[in-house]
Amino acid sequence: MGKNSAIEWTHHTFNPWWGCTKVSQACRLCYAEAWARRTGGRYWGPRAPRRFFGEHHWREPLVWDEEAFDIGHRSRVFCASMADVFEFRAELNAWRQKLWDLIESTPNLDWLLLTKRPQRIALYNRWDIWPTNVWLGTTVENQKTADERIPQLLENSASVRFLSCEPLIGPIDISRYLRAGVGWVIAGGESGGKSRPSHPRWMRDLRDQCIDANVPFLFKQWGNWAPVNAKVAMQSNQVHIFPDGEVVQRHNKKEAGRLLDGRTWDDVPVIEYDRPVSAVRITTPQQDIHTRI
After folding, report:
1. E strand segments, the chain
2. How many of the other CB atoms lie within 10 Å of CB of 38?
3. pTM of structure
4. For 167-180, how does the pLDDT look when each residue is reduced to its tens digit (9 = 90+)?
């Protein structure tokens, strides 16, 4: 996390705070909660505290912005990998305003705000139209969440409105939403010790829908289950056979890889911006790393 993230679809990650509450099946094996627990933190659930950070942490994107300006190339920032910016908690309101200030102060960074709560985006938006360097996304793991969340996402104006179909735990038809304004699709399987397998056809269908609609598609990972020849797979007891006979085998995430039909899919939207511009810097009072409101 932080600068030079290993996440395939971003350059950096920035977390205004840590912690969240699970809201759907995509949250069942939440990697962020597991990561926080490994560091000794207990920040998940409606009654759990959230972890907040001090000014050194909040200055990091200002440095990334200056670097992007110097090289003349924009950087993408995933916000927030360890939280949900649009979680409904009163003590987060002041921190959201601080985040909006930061976004305004970093015009050479594209901020990717991904949420499972798109119904609350408009509630916390301070602008009539989102700044051009904000990309809004929502997670959809199956058709039910797609039909619930995508229309709510599309009610909001942004340079890019995108979907994270990860973990993909069911088939999804998003063709009508691609025509309605979804501008990018990320797909991937689930990882973790109890991860659920994804059918390869679900990934291919999403890719093909994007190709038909001329929408960029990025395949992030298979997770811990990847397609395999049935004869090879039967030598292992760590296989899953779908009703149509398709076989996937359990691997570690690195071995499973991210090849879909023999190639990587790394398409990202290309947005025409003006040349890089100098940011107007903001100053805020010094805060302790665990400051709470």
Report:
1. 12-13, 17-18, 51-52, 75-79, 109-115, 134-139, 160-165, 184-188, 217-221, 225-227, 239-241, 247-250
2. 8
3. 0.90
4. 999 999 999 999 99
